């Protein structure tokens, strides 16, 4: 087994374009599953919250149990069936409810072959699905080119998959689930015990500094304006990048995310007539900035320092 792995790594090192192609195909397939996570995970979380609320209501207000009954307390959310997770029920057309065949789920190609329509009722299928698959494939292919067949590539790919899921969920729900961000934080600290991306000390300081920097901005803004400028999920996501890359990259990530956020925010206000009061998710900008820092962060810092001296 070890000989096979060693031989595979050697062959991939000698054929970078083959390694990038394999990485793209594999990642695009994962991207198809990420679409499911983005759509279903928030529903699962809402069900959990509803269940917890029902439990406490029934505990502190027993009359509610008699009034609505157990069936009402366990009522599924909206249109989703009672048994609902990342696997069950199987993928189906939201309009005609026909099951989606495995070959229709082929990443990118499935949507193209179906011409963006359901095979049964011809209802339009959002271009968002192949877009997320394509983006996932491209990003991991870039990682394959940059890192090669190394541990850095493996862990960077895992980080990328979860960042894409977090970005999609935040865009849809203004939510960065702890169930995704916190495992990333601990994983970053653990892998840097071996110095994969940063020293253990830099990773620990980075995690703390990442969280406390935005936490401080949040409370300063709230004290001055009386409003909340961002969510706690943003603090934790920046802490993730501090744990993975070390504290040295945090200023770059904050600068890049603020720049991209400002450009996108102003553009949306101009094109969609949004006011400054409309909330805009900041998590995707942190995710994009952090991913750029993961791949090109040191080059950007070296270039900047080179312009100063």
From TrEMBL:
The chain crosses the membrane at residues 17-38, 129-147, 153-171, 180-197, 203-225, 237-270, 282-305. The keyword rRNA-binding does not apply. Keywords: Cell inner membrane, Cell membrane, Hydrolase, Membrane, Methyltransferase, Multifunctional enzyme, Protease, Transferase, Transmembrane, Transmembrane helix. It catalyses: Typically cleaves a -Gly-|-Phe- bond to release an N-terminal, basic peptide of 5-8 residues from type IV prepilin, and then N-methylates the new N-terminal amino group, the methyl donor being S-adenosyl-L-methionine. Residues 158-266 form the Prepilin type IV endopeptidase peptidase domain. Residues 25-147 form the Prepilin peptidase A24 N-terminal domain. It is found in: Cell inner membrane; Cell membrane. Its EC number is 2.1.1.-, 3.4.23.43. It comes from the Bacteria. It is a multi-pass membrane protein. Belongs to the peptidase A24 family. Plays an essential role in type IV pili and type II pseudopili formation by proteolytically removing the leader sequence from substrate proteins and subsequently monomethylating the alpha-amino group of the newly exposed N-terminal phenylalanine. This is Prepilin leader peptidase/N-methyltransferase. It comes from Shewanella japonica.
């Amino acid at each position: 087994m070890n000989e096979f792995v060693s031989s595979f790594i050697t062959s991939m090192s000698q054929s970078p374009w083959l390694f990038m192609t394999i990485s793209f195909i594999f990642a695009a397939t994962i991207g198809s599953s990420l679409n499911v996570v983005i759509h279903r995970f928030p529903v699962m979380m809402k069900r959990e919250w509803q269940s917890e609320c029902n439990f406490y209501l029934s505990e502190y207000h027993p009359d509610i149990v008699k009034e609505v009954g157990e069936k009402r307390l366990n009522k599924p959310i909206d249109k989703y069936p009672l048994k609902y997770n990342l696997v069950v029920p199987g993928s189906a057309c939201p309009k005609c409810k026909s099951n989606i065949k495995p070959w229709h789920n082929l990443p990118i190609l499935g949507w193209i072959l179906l011409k963006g329509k359901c095979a049964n009722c011809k209802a339009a299928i959002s271009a968002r699905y192949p877009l997320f698959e394509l983006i996932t494939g491209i990003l991991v292919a870039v990682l394959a080119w940059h890192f090669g067949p190394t541990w850095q590539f493996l862990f960077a790919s895992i980080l990328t998959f979860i960042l894409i899921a977090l970005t999609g969920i935040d865009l849809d729900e203004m939510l960065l689930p702890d169930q995704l961000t916190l495992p990333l934080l601990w994983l970053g600290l653990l892998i840097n015990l071996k110095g994969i991306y940063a020293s253990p000390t830099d990773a620990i300081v980075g995690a703390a500094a990442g969280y406390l920097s935005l936490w401080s901005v949040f409370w300063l803004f709230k004290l001055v304006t009386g409003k909340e400028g961002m969510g706690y999920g943003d603090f934790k996501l920046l802490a993730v990048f501090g744990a993975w890359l070390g504290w040295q990259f945090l200023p770059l990530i904050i600068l890049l995310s603020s720049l991209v956020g400002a450009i996108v925010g102003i553009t949306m206000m101009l094109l969609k007539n949004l006011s400054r009061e409309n909330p805009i998710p900041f998590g995707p900008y942190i995710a994009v900035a952090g991913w750029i820092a993961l791949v090109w962060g040191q080059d950007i810092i070296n270039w900047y320092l080179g312009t100063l001296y």
